[in-house]
Amino acid sequence: MKKTLSIIALSVIGFGLVSCKKEAKETIGTETLSADSTQAPALDSLAAPAVSGDSAATAAPAKPATTIALSESNFDFGTIKKGDKVEHVYEVTNTGNNPLVISAVTPGCGCTAGDFTKEPILPGKKGKITLHFDSTNFDGAVNKYADVFANVEKAPIKLTFTANIQP
Q1: Can you give the pTM of this predicted structure?
Q2: 156 within 8 A of 147, measured Cβ to Cβ
Q3: What's the CA angle centered on 30, arms 41 and 70, to 5 degrees?
Q4: Buried b vs exposed e over 101-128: b needs ≥16 C-beta within 10 Å?
């Protein structure tokens, strides 16, 4: 009987992963998965909650919220040559009473990569978010962004930049 329930639960879960074509994203641990992603979590992690009746999307405990101030949220690289690899550092200040924890910086496309301060930023202290941009595949005016996920009330925070790419 238990084996039958496990097979049915796995079938239902498998069907849900295959047939569901949503753009919604779910955060599991430190990974963000899209419902239409080809990357699926291990079945072991899904089978136990489904059989026991618990919710498969149990939220991780939230860190206490804080507030943040940015040196700027938009940067203009101006005119750059096609193929240039440029970067800009956005300075962040923790203006709240709890440590600021940046959990992820997610660029809008593959031409942009992000680095950020990994350790908690104490109240009153500063951290950095660096966006790296590769202009190889672009011509003319571009507008790009990255979403910053942190323990602040209005997350994600959108950082943007522009550039005019010349041959």
Answers
A1: 0.62
A2: yes
A3: 145
A4: bbbbbebeeebbebebbeebbeeeeebe
